[in-house]
TrEMBL record:
<dbReference type="GO" id="GO:0000049">
    <property type="term" value="F:tRNA binding"/>
</dbReference>
<keyword id="KW-0648">Protein biosynthesis</keyword>
<keyword id="KW-0067">ATP-binding</keyword>
<dbReference type="Pfam" id="PF01409">
    <property type="entry name" value="tRNA-synt_2d"/>
</dbReference>
<comment type="subunit">
    <text>Tetramer of two alpha and two beta subunits.</text>
</comment>
<dbReference type="GO" id="GO:0004826">
    <property type="term" value="F:phenylalanine-tRNA ligase activity"/>
</dbReference>
<dbReference type="GO" id="GO:0005737">
    <property type="term" value="C:cytoplasm"/>
</dbReference>
<keyword id="KW-0436">Ligase</keyword>
<keyword id="KW-0030">Aminoacyl-tRNA synthetase</keyword>
<dbReference type="GO" id="GO:0005524">
    <property type="term" value="F:ATP binding"/>
</dbReference>
<keyword id="KW-0547">Nucleotide-binding</keyword>
<dbReference type="InterPro" id="IPR022911">
    <property type="entry name" value="Phe_tRNA_ligase_alpha1_bac"/>
</dbReference>
<keyword id="KW-0460">Magnesium</keyword>
<dbReference type="GO" id="GO:0006432">
    <property type="term" value="P:phenylalanyl-tRNA aminoacylation"/>
</dbReference>
<dbReference type="InterPro" id="IPR002319">
    <property type="entry name" value="Phenylalanyl-tRNA_Synthase"/>
</dbReference>
<feature type="binding site">
    <location>
        <position position="249"/>
    </location>
    <ligand>
        <name>Mg(2+)</name>
    </ligand>
</feature>
<comment type="similarity">
    <text>Belongs to the class-II aminoacyl-tRNA synthetase family. Phe-tRNA synthetase alpha subunit type 1 subfamily.</text>
</comment>
Length: 334
């Protein structure tokens, strides 16, 4: 009998190893452990074995039954693991997950910030809902100035408005800190402009301010030069043209050599080789006095440019409305 038990065990082992799928294993299970199975038949024989051998035989057959049940389960789970692996077709194309990315304006904002951070500037922030005082009065824009006209500004309540530029952040920074100051601020600004290819009621500015002893117009030009070279490329030049802004004296419109044609002349620069980028100038004495700085000791310069304009020139975008249309095909290009 022991030899029969060993033979059954070996035969089942061979059978299970050869099984190619769960079906094979199931039929072996029936063959060995089913009602008419080989092992079941042995179990039935136990009672007929001579009394002195019955106990030993019974233990051997029960051990065989337990082993067979375990071996079958083990083989089934191995097979289902293997089968599951073969169920995956690695040649099928994967499902593309659309990858989110930063908005083009955010990207340009961060690029501008990194250029100024490399020059040792701090980044400041300020509220979009601003007091009239910080937006206008403290910046030497008197009550009768055209910029305070209802047509240009969104007033929310008497004395409260949506900031029309990032310049109030200058005032807040100067009132909070003592010179030297080297800061930029980026953020949304609001004006009651009709929407067209170059105007939107919401736009983004980058504001710069430097206050220290012995700051000159040459420092302004040097910093702007570094700025535009960092953003538009190392061969870009800066030109300052006389202009007027109430909070600077002297004031300048800043033009850069056209990064598209390299200054030779093209439709973007209207064949002039130069593109106007935004205002700048030396901080007006009235502004310095307003924040409590002594203009005989401290001077400074400031500038305010549009992030949209920078992005339009850098990427050849013709219409400012594209930034706000939320067209994913457009935004996905950057
Ligand atoms: Zn050009």
């Amino acid at each position: 009998m022991p030899s029969t038990i060993d033979e059954i065990r070996t035969a089942l082992e061979t059978r299970l190893t050869a099984a190619r799928d769960a079906q094979d294993v199931r039929s072996a299970q029936i063959e060995y452990l089913g009602k008419k199975g080989t092992v079941t038949a042995l179990l039935k024989q136990i009672s007929g074995v001579a009394e002195d051998q019955r106990r030993q035989f019974g233990e051997q057959v029960n051990a065989l039954k337990q082993w067979a049940a375990q071996a079958i389960e083990q083989r089934l789970s191995n097979l289902s693991f293997t089968t599951r692996r073969y169920d995956i077709d690695f040649s099928l194309p994967g499902q593309l997950m659309p990858a989110g990315k930063k908005h083009i304006l955010t990207q340009v904002e961060e690029e501008v910030e990194s250029v100024f951070l490399s020059m040792g500037f701090d980044i400041e922030e300020g509220p979009e809902i601003e007091q009239e005082y910080y937006n206008f009065e403290a910046l030497n824009i008197p009550a009768d100035h055209p910029a305070r006209d209802m047509q240009d500004t969104f007033y929310l309540a008497p004395g409260m408005l949506l900031r029309t530029h990032t310049s109030p952040i200058q005032v807040r920074t100067m009132k909070r800190e003592n010179p030297p100051i080297r800061m930029i601020a980026t953020g949304r600004c609001y004006r009651r402009d009709a929407v067209d290819a170059s105007h939107t009621p919401v736009f983004t500015q980058v504001e710069g301010l430097v206050i220290d002893k012995d700051i000159t117009f040459a420092d302004l030009k040097g910093v702007l030069q570094e700025f535009v070279r960092g953003v538009f490329g190392s061969s870009t030049n800066v030109k300052l043209l006389p202009s007027f802004f109430p909070f600077v004296e002297p004031g300048a419109e800043t033009a850069i050599s056209c990064p598209i044609c390299g200054g030779k002349g093209c439709p973007t620069c209207k064949n002039s080789g130069w593109i106007e980028m935004g205002g700048s100038g030396m901080v007006h004495q009235n502004v310095l006095q307003e924040v409590g700085y002594d203009p005989s000791i401290y001077q400074g310069f400031a500038f305010g440019w549009g992030i949209e304009r920078i992005a339009m020139i850098k990427y050849g975008i013709r219409d400012i409305r594209m930034f706000y249309d939320n067209d994913l095909d457009f935004l996905g290009q950057f």
